[in-house]
Amino acid sequence: VIDHQPARTLRLTIAYDGTGYAGWQRQTNGLSIQQLVEDALQTFCHAGAPRLSVHGASRTDAGVHALAQVASVRVPFDAPARAVWRALNVRLPLDVRVLAVEDAPHTFHARFDASGKRYRYRIFTASVLSPFVRAYVWHRPYPTDVEAMRQETTRLVGTHDFASFEARGAQTLDSIRTLERVDVEIAPDEIHVVVEGSGFLRHMVRIIVGSLVEVGAGRRPAGWVGEVLAARTRGAAGPTAPAAGLVLEHVRY
Amino acid sequence: VIDHQPARTLRLTIAYDGTGYAGWQRQTNGLSIQQLVEDALQTFCHAGAPRLSVHGASRTDAGVHALAQVASVRVPFDAPARAVWRALNVRLPLDVRVLAVEDAPHTFHARFDASGKRYRYRIFTASVLSPFVRAYVWHRPYPTDVEAMRQETTRLVGTHDFASFEARGAQTLDSIRTLERVDVEIAPDEIHVVVEGSGFLRHMVRIIVGSLVEVGAGRRPAGWVGEVLAARTRGAAGPTAPAAGLVLEHVRY
To answer: Is the pLDDT of residue B163 over 70?
Structure first.
């Protein structure tokens, strides 16, 4: 048996400010984080070597950020992990930083092996948007009933069909997912929605936030998010909250 | 007596990300915060009205940030302060935000009336620079003896001739200033130097930080900052720390 797959698997931990990018996933129109990392790694390979494929745990949307995205890649070179780490950070722009490069078991796959992910969504509530967080929040300088938002979150925790919270046109076969945690936290001038679960549909966190805010703003009554969930159709839910407020915080294995 | 000075004085509180600007002060080469604010205010005046002059409490350098710069301006119009506040934020770019506009006593002058200012300087010490703070810190991923830095600060508190901590070529007549506070604080992955005083020379905080770091890095012995102070010449001190790490936090009246 001839195995053409390289025998070595690297695990990368990557932080990025997603503001200027078309998201994690390689795109034909727009620069993605995946492409940047693949291109930077390719420089370790012989000319003419097959293209490397870097797999991220989360396919973050355009404009979404990551504190610690995890990615895996099979590589045909044997440079020490520490040298790869240094070289990647020299080659990548300053808004994409590789926090760690480690040798992983041959079969490790960042997406399929992940057991859970945690996202944080930041809503900025002061009347004037701070210049220092403007790329990382949704600015909503309006009265918001945080306790009402908290009440709605109880409907979402657990295993449900989240079809109402999936972007239109997504090609998912199965929209059943499990959320272990949906918390609404208070920070100075901010409201944070923290969501943790084993898997997420496209735009799921942003539609959940957009729906919780409908109740927090008083435009929908208590219990409405439960009705949205039961409807199992995107049209029932609130708007998709802006990408800038979302950050991938942690991937669990 | 004919008084051509407008009778109304406004007090502005302004936050800005200084990254893209030539500093507070109007420059012939490069866009300043002062110019942006003056131009935005000018739109309230009749065509042909004399140019407004906005005076800032601190003339922050190019690349230096402000959480709450205070500025004063005499204006010939009587639009309510709240309307001026709203209109300024519509006209200014998102990295310059007016936090407040208030009517002030006619004689109020943001610079001459200030009794003190507080600055914070952020040093980022983790090996990989976080994309989210890269514009607001000095990245120094090297061992640093914080306790040694703290010891040096005791030499600086009080009234001294700070000539060693003044930029070369500055045209100050008198380099005697009073520092009430020089603290070295620890934050996650960061060291902060907090300096509060009644007045500051050009580059003073940045040269103080550059000098404290010389001792923290072990390149200079304990007590060296006291020798620098006594020398009363710029050449005796450490390098000027980069502008990006500095933020004007508070102006006291």
So the answer is: yes
What pTM does this model have? Answer: 0.92
Q: Give the catalytic positions of A in this structure.
A: 61
Chain A positions with Cβ closer than 8 Å to B: 15-17, 65, 89, 94-99, 128-132, 134, 136
Q: Is a pLDDT exceeding 90 seen at residue B172?
A: no
pLDDT band per the 50, 70, 90 thresholds, residue A169: confident
d(CA B195, CA B210): 13
- The count of residues in chain B is 253
Across the interface, whether the CB atoms of A136 and B136 are under 8 A apart is answered: no
Per-residue CA distances from A81 to A4, A11, A41, A99, B142 (Å): 22, 9, 12, 12, 21
B33-42 vs B81-91: helix crossing angle, rounded to 10: 120
Model-level ipTM above the cut of 0.90: no
* B181-205 average pLDDT score: 97
Beta carbons of A130 and B16 less than 8 Å apart: no
Write out the two tokens for A159.
Answer: 């295993």
Provide the shortest C-alpha distance from residue A173 to chain B (in Å): 36
CA angle A171, A179, A227 (to 5 degrees): 75
What residues have CB less than 8 Å from A71, skipping those under 6 apart? Answer: A11, A12, A14, A34, A37, A54, A55, A56, A57, A110
A107 to chain B, closest Cα gap in Å: 28
Q: What is the pLDDT of residues A206-225, one digit of tens each?
A: 999 999 999 999 999 999 99
- Which of these, A88, A75, A76, A102, lies nearest to A40 by C-alpha position? A88
Which residues of chain B lie closer than 8 angstroms to A136, CB-CB? 132
Q: What is the DSSP string of A124-175?
A: E-SSS--TTTTTSSEE--S---HHHHHHHHTTTSEEEE-GGGS-TT---S--
Query: Is it the case that residue A30 has pLDDT exceeding 60?
Result: yes
Longest dimension (CA), chain B: 66
